[in-house]
């Protein structure tokens, strides 16, 4: 499988600056009992395939990135590269996520490593759609 790298500057990579920005507000999601509930119609970053939202804070045990994949499927990953812990971003058109650092560790939808300096998979979490809500159940 050919690995496509996100177009990021060397400075962004050295600083570990992810392409996926923090959302302007966090009102569209909540976290209770190991479940994250997202109001899909209010999650602007998820409106198109290859979009993503970063979920951080609110007592979450780990940073999460939620990606809108092809065919309106959604994948949730720990947003912490298993090499040195930098954040990851979706790579448009590839159904992969990639570390924002210089080494660009790349993972498939199952979180398996397909390129880069780590051998450990990225943790994934099941996502279900219930009416207008996405529910991520943390593993
Ligand atoms: S921290 Fe992700 S490749 Fe190094």
From TrEMBL:
<dbReference type="GO" id="GO:0051537">
    <property type="term" value="F:2 iron, 2 sulfur cluster binding"/>
</dbReference>
<dbReference type="InterPro" id="IPR036922">
    <property type="entry name" value="Rieske_2Fe-2S_sf"/>
</dbReference>
<keyword id="KW-0479">Metal-binding</keyword>
<dbReference type="GO" id="GO:0046872">
    <property type="term" value="F:metal ion binding"/>
</dbReference>
<dbReference type="InterPro" id="IPR017941">
    <property type="entry name" value="Rieske_2Fe-2S"/>
</dbReference>
<feature type="domain" description="Rieske">
    <location>
        <begin position="64"/>
        <end position="136"/>
    </location>
</feature>
<dbReference type="Pfam" id="PF00355">
    <property type="entry name" value="Rieske"/>
</dbReference>
<keyword id="KW-0001">2Fe-2S</keyword>
<keyword id="KW-0411">Iron-sulfur</keyword>
<protein>
    <recommendedName>
        <fullName>Rieske domain-containing protein</fullName>
    </recommendedName>
</protein>
<keyword id="KW-0408">Iron</keyword>
